[in-house]
Amino acid sequence: MKKNTSTKLSKKLAKYGALSLAIAGVADATGQIVYTDVDPDETIDGSSFMLDLNGDGVIDYDIIARSGPEAVRMYNTQGNSVLGSNAGGNYNYPDVLSSGSAISSGGNFYTDPNYQTLNWDACAYTNSQWCDGQVDKYVGLRFNVDGNQHYGWAKIDLPADGSSFTIKGYAFNSVPDAEISAGEGESLGINNQIFSGFTHFVAQNELNLKANTAMSSVAIFDITGKQVISQNLTSTNAQVNLAGINTGVYIATVTIEGSKKTFKFVK
């Protein structure tokens, strides 16, 4: 999948890199639903949130809070699309989804070459379901990974004036073409205590891992998605030798009792 390197996105990569390193996703026991908790919630006012659903270093959506009558826009990159409705012509509006709503091939997904608008300042255009403010609602997403379609969601709050937005978390189904429900996977962030106390850091060409429960494995991928290291683990403390890989940003997935935690690190 080709990475979007437009001028608009390039200007924000530094901010995205710092934020993405602070976000860690966790998968269910099957590894199918991968949930990322944005903790603390990120309120965007006059800037953007660059959404990388699967942590592969490719920006899937760029959600921008901006001034003007169309205050919040979701730009689709990579030919991705948003579950929504068409109000005629090129006016495609994301649906407001409640917890449990189905996000699958049976829905109407729209790809706009420029943007999907989430809300309008003072609701100047009333076709949007996001008018008058929304709390704890979801946007349904369909995005491409190596030519395969995956379904996911982002949880967003918008104030009534549409001047900003708050993103609280997001998730996707790692199985191509498989359905996901809005909010599915959030319980991983609430109830999964297996990774409580988990820490990691890089020092002297080693990735150091520590957990309260014995870890079973770790896999490391470069930002293209290629696996570069795989190691079985049997204890609560582990070191992974990084001498054989180049300097750069990597994605690590640690498994404990069938649950997975994914995070980024810099060598």
Radius of gyration: 19 Å
- Enumerate how many helices there are, as a single number: 3
What is the H-and-E element order?
HHEEEEEEEEEEEEEEHEEEEEEE
- Quote the beta fraction: over 45%
Task: Please describe what this structure looks like.
This protein has 267 residues and is mainly beta. 7% of the residues lie in helices and 46% in strands. Strands 1, 2, 6, 7, 9, 11, 12, 13, 17, 18, 20 and 21 form a 12-stranded antiparallel sheet that branches. A 4-stranded antiparallel sheet has the order 3-4-5-10, with no helix packed on it. Strands 15-16-19 form a 3-stranded antiparallel sheet, with no helix packed on it. The N terminus is likely disordered.
